[in-house]
From TrEMBL:
Residues 76-104 are annotated as: Disordered. InterPro entries: 4Fe4S_Fe-S-bd, 4Fe4S_Fe_S_CS, 7Fe_ferredoxin, Fd_C, FdxA, RnfB_subfamily. Ferredoxins are iron-sulfur proteins that transfer electrons in a wide variety of metabolic reactions. GO terms for molecular function: 3 iron, 4 sulfur cluster binding; 4 iron, 4 sulfur cluster binding; electron transfer activity; metal ion binding. Pfam families: DUF3470 (PF11953), Fer4 (PF00037). Residues 85-103 have a biased composition (Basic and acidic residues). This is Ferredoxin. Keywords: 3Fe-4S, 4Fe-4S, Electron transport, Iron, Iron-sulfur, Metal-binding, Repeat, Transport. Its cofactor is [3Fe-4S] cluster; [4Fe-4S] cluster. It comes from Altererythrobacter xiamenensis. NCBIfam families: FdxA_Protbact.
């Protein structure tokens, strides 16, 4: 599966949602997550994210994000079409420590 990481926090560009063939993105207050049991591993969303927030879970050190995506995709609503990002999205692109600072 692919997973959304903390680089999405406060950015939420939602380009990913537009290209996913199985609509497996779920939206929280500060970020989106992928439902790992619905993701078909097609990889199309990865290069579409301007914040480079999406990675395959085969990369090292992504266990935390796999867990978070699994947990919250079961709680948050499905999002199936692109919407405007927050007005200050570009200011938060590439910022460090976003999970600790902003995640809700
Ligand atoms: Fe959707 Fe494919 Fe991305 Fe999985 S890898 S979330 S199926 S676009
Ligand atoms: Fe987030 Fe990137 Fe999608 S910032 S909403 S994972 S396009």
């Amino acid at each position: 599966t692919y997973v959304v990481t903390d680089a999405c926090i406060k950015c939420k560009y939602t380009d990913c949602v537009e290209v996913c063939p199985v609509d497996c993105f779920y939206e929280g207050e500060t970020m989106l997550v992928i439902n790992p049991s619905e993701c078909i591993d097609c990889g199309v969303c990865e290069p579409e994210c301007p914040a480079e927030a999406i990675l395959p879970d085969t990369e090292d050190g992504l266990e935390k994000w796999l867990e978070l995506n699994t947990k919250y995709s079961a709680e948050w609503p499905n999002i199936t079409s692109q919407k405007d990002p927050p007005a200050d999205a570009d200011e938060h692109k590439g910022e460090e420590g976003k999970f600790e600072k902003y995640f809700t």
